[in-house]
Amino acid sequence: MTRFIFITGGVVSSLGKGLAAAALGAILQARGFKVRLRKLDPYINVDPGTMSPYQHGEVYVTDDGAETDLDLGHYERFTGVAARQSDNITTGRIYSDVIARERRGDYLGATIQVIPHITDAIKEFILSDLGDEDFILCEIGGTVGDIESLPFLEAIRQLGNELGERAMYIHVTLLPFIQAAGELKTKPTQHSVKELLSVGIQPDLLLCRAEHKIPQGELRKIALFCNVRVEAVIPALDVDTIYAAPISYHVEGLDDQVCRHFGIDAPGPDLSRWRDIVDRVTKPEGGATIAIVGKYTGLLDAYKSLSEALVHGGIANNVRVNMKWIEAEIFEREDTVDHLDGVHGILVPGGFGERGAKGKIAAACFARERAIPYFGICLGMQMAVVELARSLAGIKDAGSTEFGVCKEPVIGLMTEWMREGIVEKRQTNGDLGGTMRLGAYEACLRRKSRILAIYDSETIVERHRHRYEVNTRYLDVLEKAGIHFSGMSPDGVLPEIVELPSHPWFIGVQFHPELKSKPFDPHPLFTSFVGAAIDQARLV
Ligand code: GLN
After folding, report:
1. pLDDT tens digits for 237-267?
2. Secondary structure in 3-state letters for 17-76
3. Which residue's C-alpha comes closest to atom 6 of ligand 1?
């Protein structure tokens, strides 16, 4: 008896629809239900893997190696349910599947149309790959009224008919506050619901985002004009921390209304987990400042999982993490000390391409020389290895072939080494030359290493998204210089973790630990890094 909740957004984009869906998922879970969340994206890219982080925010990678929308990160952080390839679909993927079927002749000569062929493919996706979930929450990307989202809306309209009492429509809207009039306005919500009605969808519940408390009279007005019961017009006011959303929505009656819609009589939610998290976020004991030296710092959505993982590290240590975002390129013009002096930790995140690389190397150098905790993730690890190779192992020309031909390629492509016979041809989960190493891979940790103490486990599984690797040809000389590769792929070929035992906390990882961190289960690397930054803050 799986039930489906379709979540659409109106009035403006960036309403926090993804967070709202994630928070509802968390409350339903807290009432004892099994949930799964899915995202339908109306853009024509097959997946967001090739989209600029500036346009689309971060690409969230799943265990099964899918490059997906960042909302799947919210879903996973709020529910702990590991997202899968089959939880995110785009117009591009739907069309390419339908066209491939058409080319194969699967449609037996029929004329292929948006309705029913595209809408059928969308419905198939929504209903596919399910288990014994009580609820599937299905978020439609974009804003109602966009041309792109029409086939998705038509598909969920049809599904509403087919599923009957097992379907529910939630519309997330905005009540803008007009300063001059001192009023919250309901008209955009009315228009947005009208737009939904024009495609045949009557929302069952409205989640109204607002900066200020919504007067009862306005809630009644919305109910009347939008043909929704007044109890099902739920205020969603701004909260101090996103992790307060499950509590706030519950207080406003969201989950009770959902249960009522489906005629379910279920015990109330146990939200103690969320209360504890909110307590820790809003009442920290002390804090530390962490500099994040990256390439897309102009759009913080580009580092969504990373900034959340730092918050989680703060939760674990009961401290506030102040994030100082620094564009790496600035170190090509200005001195590192002008920006990094006084920070308690330096994190260089993942990224692609040469822009900012010099600045990242300079940041790693600063952290090493001044004994400031350093955390390098993916490209941040690779740049640290380049820095350490140059300064500790005396390999002056150390570099990465990602940025062109280089004399001492300490970072390069596996295929380059196979060609040169440095590593034997090996069976991999794909061609490591041209394509990305994507998704979950195992790594084995070295005994008596810092990383083993942090994870407290000899094998770990983490998510990857990269093409380049540390060149095994240099391992011996780097190890001799005191640079330890304390985590390797199980076959011992690919270095996954680098650490500097002579430094208080200097760790680089080839994978993306931020993708698996949760507020109720902070990632051990972030817990340890923030802890080291706190120690550093006590020193200065
Ligand atoms: N650009 C690097 C690579 O492809 C690092 C990728 C990343 O940081 N995600 O290997």
Report:
1. 999 999 999 999 999 999 999 999 999 998 9
2. HHHHHHHHHHHHHHCCCCEEEEEEECCCCCCHHHCCHHHHCCCEECCCCCEECCHHHHHH
3. 466
- For residue range 66-96, list pLDDT tens digits in order: 999 999 999 999 999 999 999 999 999 999 9
Q: State the catalytic residue, choosing from 378, 402, 464, 503.
A: 378
* Ligand 1 centre distance from Cα of residue 114 (Å): 38
Q: What six digits make up the tokens of 453?
A: 């103490």
Residue 497 token pair: 């973790």
Cα separation, 149 vs 7, in Å, equals 13
Active site residue 458: no
Contact 386, 398 (CB under 8 A): yes
- Asked if the model's pLDDT at residue 424 lies above 90, the reply is no
Contact status, residue 85 vs residue 62, Cβ threshold 8 Å: yes
Cα–Cα distance, 255 to 246 (Å, whole number): 10
C-alpha to C-alpha distance for 100 and 95, rounded to whole angstroms: 8
What domains does the chain contain, in order, with CATH numbers?
Answer: 3-277 (3.40.50.300), 285-539 (3.40.50.880)
CA atoms of 92 and 94, how far apart (whole Å): 6
Distance of alpha carbon 309 from alpha carbon 525, whole angstroms: 9
Question: H-type helices in 130-265, by residue range?
Answer: 150-163, 187-198, 216-226, 245-251, 254-262
Q: Tell me the whole-structure pTM to 2 decimals.
A: 0.94
Does the CB atom of residue 466 touch ligand 1 within 6 A? yes
514 is catalytic: yes
Does 503 qualify as catalytic in the annotation? no
